[in-house]
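Complex record, two chains
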Amino acid sequence: MDPPIVLDVNDNDPNKLTKAVVDADLGVGGRRLVVISGIASPAWVINWDSVADRDCRLRLRHPVDNVEQATIHVGLAHVANNDTEYVFATDKHRWEIEAGELVLITHIVLSGSSGLIRFSYQIVLTTRVVVSEISGTITWPTEWFRPASPTPTAVADTFTVMANERTTETIPPSEEEPFGRFIEHLTPKAPGEIVSVEIGDLQCRARYRISNPPKERELKVTVGQQGLRGPGQTTDVVPVVEGGNLIRLTVAQPTRDGVDFNARSDVIR
Amino acid sequence: MNSPDLPLQFPVPWGTEDYQAYEAQAYHFPLTDVVVNGLVAADPQDVFRIPVAGPPPFNTLAVVRTVFFVTSLHMEDERVYPFRVAMPTNLVLAGYDRRRPEQQKVQHSSSATLRMMQINAQGTFEDSNITFTFAAEQVEDDSRLDETGRWHVIVRGNSSIIATDLRTACAATVEISSWVLCWEPARLT
């Protein structure tokens, strides 16, 4: 079998892959009916007197949670032949979830001096929306910053809470970089909000919530601050437990509480 | 999606264009069944409506099947015939009123599949020396409603045929499967 052809909606090329979605709320138990349709262009051309076959993977980049039912239709949409016997087929298909997103795999078959340029697809599925959430607290010494009132509004400009998608890469040692390098990439995905504030004589504590962060991704929660005045040259908000802000939510475990942060001020000597 | 490079056409009623000559050819699936008076007549299927709670303003999800002809008659001329057509469907919005803003838009997800392809030349068992292309290339995100509330789906494609016999003709039909979010007044029954 020939290697698979991979087409990706993220390439934003309507000549390669189109995608149209309707997403309807069925009004019962958070269920939704989702229809994803389009035309894919593997542009596969052969001149072969036997039968060739391969898979075509469509990365539809559609996040799906909890698929209860799914049905797929695929069919020929653009074929050509140059005066030979021929076979054109889209005869098997299945779906997978890859990193929380839908992938359609179609087995395509071709023979003769022929081209299977495009095929169409339509996936109909029902899902149950699983609400995800990350929550925790931010604690800091009152003498560093005393909010004007124990309300979320009073600290809204002080803290920036964000769930970021985290990817990493390791650069191996080389002549230029004898120790190699580890690089972390953070892409903001879902902002958080402060939902309550307590002001004590020694410490203040704000409770935050991040609604609907993506599932099935490695996430890193970060808290930026402006307005805390610690004794050191730098003041940061860091997780109480080192690495405790690295999270992966799943459909089975869509929420995480206790992702707590403390303010820390360092003196640079 | 706007496609200014290709003018949008509407199907022409049977018998007024060159493809009426195709009626004289031998073939298995008469195109006369496909389009009658500009509307789909072949394999008519009822529109299936599902009540939905949203997203606003929609309250109905309609399942619509439409049969559409790719080409009718192209004598051998080595040309590619592109088309872009607004195909009328069997979906007519109930209680359609142009003054209702919630009825002025629909949202759809549609696929287009080749359902029948046919070439007839010298004879069924003779070498026909034919090179062909049949293509349904794109179902556009844009669609339209006419003054009666009938929904039209816009399809792009092309066809070509190269043959040694001038009597050669080709035909194909496409089935469009559409799921359409729309708004209709509540039914009293």
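Note: The helical segments of chain A are 152-155.
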